[in-house]
Fold each of these.
Amino acid sequence: MPDLSLDAFPKNSTGHELADLVFVHGIGGHPLKTWQPKNFNQSGFWPEWVAADLPIYRVWSVGYPAAKTMWDKRGSFSLPKRATSLLVNLDAKHLGERPIVFITHSLGGLVVKQLLRVAQDSSEPRLQRFVKNTLGIIFIATPHLGADIATVADRLRIVARPSDALADLKKSGPYLDDLKHWFSAQATKHGWRILAFREGRSVKYGFKAVEDGSADPGISGVRPIDIDADHISICQPETRTSAIYEDTKAFLEELGKKLEPARIETRAVGGDVQIVYEQKPDYPFVDLSICNRGSAKIAVTELRVVKGASIKDEHGSERCLTGPKMKLEFSLRGSHNGRWRRTLRDSVCKLESSECDTFQLQLTSENTLNLVDIDVEFISANSAIAQRYLPIELLIIHSPVSTFNSETEVDSGTISIVKRSDALRALLNRVKLNLWQNRSYAECSNLYPLLMRGAAFVARENLLINWEMLRSIFEGKWEWGPILASFSDFAVENEVPSSIIEYMRMAMRNPTTISGLGFWDTECFSATILSNLMKLRRNSQGNPELTDSAEYLEILDKTLFLPDTENIYSVALACYREIAHRAFTKIHGRGSVEFMIMSLQVQPHDAIAYHELLYDIVNEGTILTRGFQKKIPDLPEVQFNEGKILAFWLNWWEEREGQSLYKSVGWRRHSPRLTSALQAYQTRERTEIETFLCHEDALVRWAAARNRNIAVRHREILTRDSSAIVRLTLARDEHTDLDALAVLSDDESSAVRRWVANHPKLNRRLAEKFVEDESMEVRAFLARNSSCPRDLIERLAQSDVEDVAQSARRQLEVPGK
């Protein structure tokens, strides 16, 4: 068997499984034959029995190279390589995305232990999830400390040529001992349930392949169960009444109780249940029927009403909606057996085959256009597993509309039923859906934005395929922000492929991506996505404060950014970082002060945000009474006074730097960019400055450019920097020499040239060059420079450009000019 293989039982999924169960064979094993008894017949073998008896598990049997000797054509390789290869292949088949259990024989147990170790040490979240999602492991005759047969074979290497697989089982090896201790600690930490069996009979050579002590996994409270079989037949039970199968089945049933009810498979139209809507709902009521189309009795346990998107509507100059935003309320009444009752999460109804029950849904909205999704959870008499039915339709609810000039003229609101496929087609092709005949609603131009903001609910039937289509069309465009926010909303309450979660996680560490996501009204999409990702992280981690803290530090470090040459930066990015900062400081309080002040030195262009945060952290805002508040009483007025803000907090910190109260957060190991930029900004060693000026990160070079200890040779390097903001910093520095200014006078950026034109060291030769500059702004800056010769100012005063001429005339009015 040269390659890895994976067999499923049954071949096709039933759609009801909640977890995966993987059989892993040992040395010389086979994905099927290892588990089949000698008298294998049509009665089957235990992978098939488990699949039939416990349908909550999707059963798999894996095959991999594990030859006994090097003469074996099937090949083999060492335990770490084998485990890594198996891990990657299981991930490629999407195993590990939900709870998983392993049944292992012999070497297979060591492979799974090593697989989990590789997963834990991996930097890839999709591989790490194997550790989190592993429920339990069954070890069958696994030599946790090695086996005598491997030791003998190792001594006879010249004759037998034992393979690497057999060598891995060598008794008393330090590698297996270390693996055993690691696994024991991790099983306790992660709550893995363990069941172990050991062989009770010897193989034909007169000794047990795995001694009793080696078959013990070393887990507190776990004692191996003796089975009356040898090393080969122990994993080949002949009937369902075999001791090993009965014990395994009971163990798996107990594990099944840990599976979360939220892990419910979504089924599209064509299942046992169907929702039928009236064709013309009368706002705010929707009449619907839940029908049992299957042959077995069902119990409908939940009718879930989900607000997939809610946006404020606009009708241009003639129509508008007033009042509070984002309000959508609903209630439900059922009419089973002729009695109306209000219901939602309790047992909604029980339906015989071909029976229907009617309901009335009341949806009330204000000032909004809403996308509402409905699904049904039910249990069939044929299965104990909850299933979820997904209707083919969505609801679009438009609030009542009043005229712009008179709130007494009101159109009463409308509800439309839209096929999910039609909504998806409209979204992908950017086409308009004509839903409303009434003129008031026909003017609505926001249906397309609504579909974007609810894209995940529109696309949920084939989520991953539709995600890839949406991404290929909209990624990098303005629509991508609301679409990505929708998928993050959806992920909080529903199962989403890990590739989508990982994409969002990486996107939220890229300043360019964040800046491009934008915002609508009061919603910043990047902030919505961050909030949802942190909710998902908390659901999967044991200590939310510690994991959140490290996550926020990593986010803040990767999104450190440079302003452009106009000191302008993305509002979306600034909003995103402020939310991350506030969440971080909420965890650590005053302990985050050092981190904030160090960040302020690296991000002075965002000084007002840091100022307000520090103001809130330190003694609830009273800190500014010590002189600073008198100079700057109104915080919004100092947003461009970054120098004053930075000087104040540096002076404040100088007095308190030794107080551990303000620096209890170990932020440096999670903030490599901030640490490097801070060192570049603060160092007094000129050789270090020169090194930082050649750093690959423009943030670090910009910090070095603002270092007060830069020399002439440093300025020469800065004139050639690829970042315009770095060259601009040099042009604004009053200590910059004329040679550097002469180089910058030819800079491709007009922002750099205009600051050279306004420099106090400007000489006549440079001024004459700027009089004819193609940029009006450069000439205007020159006209304001008191160092510019009077005759050149007079020439500028004759300019056809009013701003240039006016600036020059004002300069001529200065006494002595």
Amino acid sequence: MSRSRTRSRASPGDDRVSNKLRIVVLGIMGRTPLAGVTWQVLHYVEGFRRLGHDVYYVEDTGDWGYDPEHDTTTEDGSYAVDYISRIMRWCGLPDRWAYRPAAPGSGTFGLSDTRLSQVFERADALVNLCGATVLRDEHLRVPVRIYLETDPVRPQIEVAQGRQYTIDLLTAHTHHFTFGENLGAGDCRVPVERFDYRPTRQPIVLDWWAPATRTAANGGGGRPLLPDDRFTTISSWKQSGKDVEWNGETYIWSKHVELLKLIDLPRRTRQPLELALCKGDAEAIEQLTSYGWRIVDALAMSKDISPYREYILGSAGEFTVAKDQYVRPRSGWFSDRSACYLAAGKPVITQDTGFGNVLPTGRGLFPFGPPIRFWTRSKRSKRITRPTPEWPRKSRGNTSGRTACWAACWSGRGCEIEGPPRRRPRPAGPDVRALCAARRGQAGIVDAGRGPLPRLAPTPVRRAHRLRHSHRGRHERHPPAVHLLLRSLGASSHPLDPTAARAG
């Protein structure tokens, strides 16, 4: 059956693509109806939509959903259905979602079964976000099936150990992307076998995190509110069941192990440090508060996306740790939540997972490892270093500081970057349009455009000249991400290569 394409002539500066694809995003918003997971899904769904594609959200994991009102998992899908419906209505896609509860015979909510089958039959690409969905026959009919791994290390080790379930799960996909941007590097301990992983970064819709969104609702009288001086983060306390052993070492999944190593940090700085904790037991909270940590309830602010965003916008920045499973193997993993802090113009101090090999650091993004060195606006004291001069203006929510923070830390589009980046990011990412073309041998691919939404695999650019710095120090014209991705997939060139376009 031939697949139709909606072709449109793009005006200069228009981000929309000329080839409109139908993309299905598989996610876990109903299984985990919490704001952090929801923002991750929304950024992909909205990103594809703003690029001009026809996007659908489908959840069909077969898992019971979590009900935060009763703090329990349940096979009753009513909470998940109401939650997904409200979220998709908020982002302007009220008729582009489907949810199948775990309970047998519950049917399909949102789209009808017939309509959902048509969506899969006509889809050009499927993005299995988090890799949480085991693909079935209806999914396998989609020609491009992207496994988008948000939690690296454990899957790679399970493949190396020969775990058949993980191998079968990955084999069902045609392309594999990971947030572990340091996989395969010389200092990375993660085994990479059988599957060709391509590093990628999460997209962020910048205007969703503009400081102006924090206004009258919190007493601002319609004016943006200024952040206070506390550094915050949002996290669970203990997580179990995902520790993994490799080469005689156990890599721990729970985040509290790393945080306990820094438990006395509030006593060493005048900067207020606050943890929004989910599922923190009373003993742990008492221990943390005795050392000076401020504790707030993460679950209360995570039941909806707005309080979660308000909390980030109201912070001076983020101080957080990463899981041992990301840190010791040097995976290069970076947090969705930390990306949101950066997009909001907030500096981020976080544990180094190896992302410093591919992300520029020192302006807005500050990785640390032992011994801990903490940046603060207070006077210098033992094991405390002074702040960078950019912090005051970045923390006040002005547009230039926010843009500079995002550009320096995340290398997104539409930002000015002063001078060459400290490190050269790897040019790869899940450009679905390029994947579809490479899979079917089609040409006619164009660049994604120059809008406020960062490219799915952003690379440092200058807005005016689109130059990049080569390792020899010369300025070279920066090729669009689709060209780089097509080359990585084995396609030699296509009609819209910059050199070919000039020659034509």
Amino acid sequence: MATRLFQGIANDYSRWSIVGNFHRAVWEERLMRKVILCILASAALFGFLTIQTVHAVDIDHPYFHTEEYKKIVEQFNLKKAELQNLHTELKTIQEQRKQFSWEDSGIIEFVSFLPFSSYIILLLSLSLFLAAIYLYYIKVYNPAKWFILFKTRNNLGILLKRIKEHNKLILVLCAATLILPSVSLAETSIVTDAKYFLFGNEVERGYVFVKYPVKGRKLPYDRVKDISIYPVFDENTFEHHYNYLVHEFAIGFPPKTTDLVRLIEKVRSVEALHTTYDFIFKLGEAGTIREVVQKRLSALPRLRMDTRFIEIDAILTKAKETNLLNLVGEDLAAALNLMIPEVSGTSSNLQMAYLLVDVDPNKANELFDRIKYKFQDIISEPANESRFRAAYLALSKIRPEIYRQGDSLGLDDQNDPTTMVAVALFFDKFDERLSSSIIKNFHLDRTTKIKQEPYEHLAGLWKKYRKEEVPAFFDLFTSQFIRYSRGNLNTYLNIASRLGYSKDDAVDFLIKHDAEYHGLKSESSTLITKEFMNLISADGLSKHLNYLKTRNTQAPLILNSLLEKRYDLFPDYLMYSYEKDPRMVSKLTFQNKLAGFTKWDGLVGNQFISDYRVPATYYLSEKELSAPTPKLSQVIGLLQENVDERMVEMILMDNRLGNPSLLDELMLFHLYSKMTGPPSADVRTVLEASTGSQTKARMDQQMSSIDSELQKVRGQVQSARSELDNFKSRKRSAQIRITAIWILVILTVLYIISAFFLSIRYSINAVSAYSGTRIGLFTVVFAETFAKFLVPILYFTVVALVVIIGVQLYGFLRSRDEEFPNVQRSLANYRDSLER
């Protein structure tokens, strides 16, 4: 921008020299305007750069320009690049390993290392071989059994025919069980319940779930016909019985009045009571609803007063929600009027008035008049507030002037102002006329007697109803805040915001009153805190700089704020504070904005650099050295103590690698590099040598560290490569073993399934050839036949042999009375059945 302005000035000057004296005055005026604009723009740009610049100077060192340093950096970069390549290779190997899901599931280790994986393959192979021998034996040496097993047909039809002939009683008993009533909450039969369970909709299935509760079962919904239910419930609880009645109603069986009354008697919470009456009023049966309400109202005298109020409130609420108040209104009014003689106290009278508003407005109005000025009791309980609001709004439609125009509401100068604020805030939610009346009668001087939290509410009400008096209100509050330290700064800002003031306005008010009240007495003022300094903006610091100079005892807080927000003002204020109190300021340290340590980032560490605190004397020295004619003796005096400390440390601690001391020496070296002359040359030389040796030692340390890291990572890469190769080899072996096991398992399962059905076929034919009890005999023959098939499968050999021995023993004992079925007889019977 400034460049373009200067070009415009040059162009105007050339034009002015050409056009002559006639237009000289015009061009001169335009020229002056642009010069002024250029100066202002340059000043603004300079100010912006001054404020925003951090670490404008980066510390340099002669060691960084030596050949030794360049060679070390070159070697370090090569090793660093090698280390980065090794890390990349290691990451690639690790990613390759992650691609194998076998290792994640542990199957490779299971198959490769467990010794019995080979035995599994061996046993399965041997079992299949023995099974094949067994089948070959049947075909060659027992052709009759082979024929029955593999060549018979229509075996299931033969079995059903025999069951009908010899076991008719079983079918009769099964049919009889279907018509027996179930043992449950309802009179529906088990057939109906089974039909609901198998073919019903979601609600009908839910009905069955509720009727036959199982612990841990949860209903998949929470509403039925717009009536809420309890998805989780225990047997024989309120929730269980409630769910049952709702589902019974949903499938077309309206609940009985006695069941509903008993359900209410099981209620143990307000929420459950409202849920129950919500269900009752949604039944749609006027007679049932009124009968239930009448029975419950007649039982109320046995209950405590608060319990009566709760149940009547539930009935009244649900009646209004379903537009059935006309149905039960007379009964409710009668019950409530009977309770009036027993009512006493503000809360009970208010609750009674609230309940009577919709069913007996005249009586409600009478009760409301008893308590309409007892605000202390009303606003003390949230429930009372809501009841008062509802009763007041309903009654005001019948009787608009509940509170007459100009009514003081029983509040005057004798009342506690905090109570007045609470009442005004209460009415502000539903009747601004009354709230405005209270606030407008509130004397300004009484605001000083209000506690902190109500004051915030009063501020909002004051701005709403007495907007023209807001400045006086805020001025008085600020004065009280400064004089008596009322509340904390956040509360003050909240009140200022409610009154329409910004943070900057609040700061201006605070500083104005603090300066007026405390004057130049820095010790008596408590306004300057860390919280307050964080609140002041950058422009505010410049605006109130003169005030801040009068609070020199809080100089550390002010200096830190200036350093962070207005660095351009920091040096002058630091010098001013030093002149006022040299001892205090010389002990201060600040965040480093003096010079940067960019070239030492990797050697010292970013954390140490960010934590480094610069002594105030260094900033003072920098300010003096920036002057056109710096006073070197003054600078040397400011730095002398720090220089001596570093020199002693240098002598006593050889080969030191302390990060803070190095940074401090570098900062001193930076400052002494700006000085000329013999007094500073020796110090500069010593500091240069010390910082150079420490820098070289740190670089050697880093070289040693990267060498160790390289050796470690090379070992990791080599180990990862070997592990990956070994893993791939194990994976191939595992895949072969797993494939073999799967094939053998599938063949074994197919053999067992085939044996199962072949055993059934053989057993059907064996039973058909015998005239005894068919079901028991079928089981015995099937068990023996299937066990013989399982004998070759080595995993089941022992169990199969036990079954065969048991069946043979049973056959031996039975053969004393009747002949036990055999293969030849079964085959002959099958052929006879075919001929028939």
Amino acid sequence: MVRRIGLFFLTIAVLMSVMPMNSQAQSLLTRHVREVTRTGEAKPIGLLPSDQIMNLDVVLPLRDQAGLDAFVKELYDPSSPSYRHFLTVPEFTERFGPTQEDYDAVVRFAETHGFTVVGGSRDGMDVQIRGPVSAVEAAFHVSMRNYQHPTENRTFYAPDREPTTDLPFQLWHISGLDNYSIPHPMYVKKSDYAKAHGIDARDVVSHATTGSGPSASFLGSDMRAAYYGGTALTGAGQNLGLFEYLGTDLTDLTTYFKNVGQTNNVPITLLSTDGTSTSCTAASDCDDTEQTLDMTQAIGMAPGLSSLVMYIGSTDTAIISAMTTHSPLPTTIGCSWGWTPADPTTLNPYFEKMASQGQNFFAASGDSSTWSSSNEAWPADNAYIVSVGGTDLVTASAAGPWKSETAWTDSGGGISPDGIPIPSWQQLSGVINSSNKGSTTLRNGPDVAANANFTFYVCADQTTCTANEYGGTSFATPMWAGYIALVNQQLAANGDGTIGFINPTIYQQNVTSSYAADFHDITSGTSGSYSAVTGYDLVTGWGSPNGTGLINALAPTSTSPAFSIFASPGSVSVVQGSNGTSTITTSVSGGFSSAISLTASGQPTGVTVTLSPASIAAPGSGSSTLTMTVASTTVAGTYTITVTGTGGGITHTATVSLTVTAPTAGAFTISVSPTSGYLRQGQSGYAVVSTTVSGGFSSAIALSATGQPAGVTVTFMPSSIAAPGSGSSDMYLTVSRTAATGTYPITITGTGGGITHTTVLTFEVVSRR
């Protein structure tokens, strides 16, 4: 029997709320104990070791919930003077975020209880900390236990009771105190679908007979042709974010574009929000199918994006906190993952913050048909996100226009199983009716839809790409995120801000005669308990986007002379003593015809900024190269460079986030988890060796071990970490029946790029008797 040596690293996120002073133990404001542990359905099987390390994300809540509710309502009311006057990140913090005093108090609380602060920000409302289980149990008055999962063949950890603290205020939530629900991607493989339905995979119908990819499969660019159909809008100047629980291997993205004869021009950033690795390779037993398909669909719809950032983390709060604060701010976001929190209100503060900052969050509605308590919808049934269902699309030709569409048979949808109240925009007359069988008291979903059938070309896991094998609302969600980037580009050209949260707008528009021009109304097909019907339904929502019709409805073309300005990329990192560039582009509309002069401001001491050319000639559409030359004496840090365009009596600005870094030599670190463990004579087990690179290091790292006693063999799988050098390897130890008992320091050596580093596993051989 193989036994895993050591300890699992756990991640938790804690949301905190400031309440009146009280010396008594404070309960938390949201639920944390799972129903299965409360009722005893999940049987406890032991305690977590007290020295086991846990990573927590301590998040402070909104300062003025009622005020924010009222503000968001006005933001999306066309008759309000505040209509779409969105807040910047600092403005939100000043009005609704934690005070500096409260934030500092949380930091002190963490440090006093033995935690190390490792990240977070006041703007993000979080303090990321690290410490042992013993500190968690002492700080929150719980016992961390292991339980047998009642429906899955595994164990999970969770607190034995609702946490309390001795703080003079109440906490809001601890979103990761258990791993009862493991996040899963919202895609499905055709062979798995066929097996679940008791049919042959060859009998699963695929309508991708007109795709331009291999075997007539659909590419992301085909979805652009079907749902947009134009060429003028590319997402230029827009920043798109993708919510990911795992990193990726950009080699797969490169393979995709190479195989289909296309070029990706969108800058990709892999951002770790909480220290989670941004690498995901098949060699390290990590699957990047979801992450890669998310990028291909978003880029396919909006091939001119200024940036696409993969926000990667292990906790939902850490990921979304970064999404609400990162510069440049992602204004359209896709999430193709599903999970079940202990309390479905956990992320409401962040989703509402996004709405106030002009951000739109799309969530896949799922691939298992009708929502239920056993077929969870979250986060797709949250009232502040746009839920995306699935359809079965047919196009007129390869890379051609939309022809027809029916409901996808497994599209997730229905009535909120989390008991989320029906939002105001679903209460409009004509939305819920006897035909669609929706609820008049609870949130219904999905809101919109797009192609999700088994019709796509997919490259993943550094292996052979597939055609017409994968489907799911995972594909439809990043499509919609890319489509809204086109809307925001047109709004920017009109001199307007972003569209923000689209549900209040599209529901209001779709109960009028403009609906047919804006959406493809899906009226046939069934998924589970619901069918597609005329108008809104609980399988496809309002349907799929109808080309430029919806874009023009959300971003009416300006009839007054105007221009827009944007920077690509919007974020540039430069080493001291070097330089970096960004392209400043202007576009005109409404008959604007004037030269546009360009100036830059905000650069720190030691940074010289030039614009070439310094003026865009009339009629005003063109580009200029912004060059930022950083002296070796410039203080490292992040600075906002503002480029101002002035012409025709109009002034607009674009910003570039300049990060100045100190030069570093290529390096790597090596570690082993756990750092100590034991096996009995005759047993086998393994530990995990991990390497992390920095400073431009790029080399394979060979692994070896010394110090093991006679009778103990050590092997590494893989035996080396592939270039650029970040990854992990399983270190297998096999103990013979005759190995001498005792404790041995085993030195693990990593060698690569002319550098050698070591780490030590303290290993004990125990008698088998």
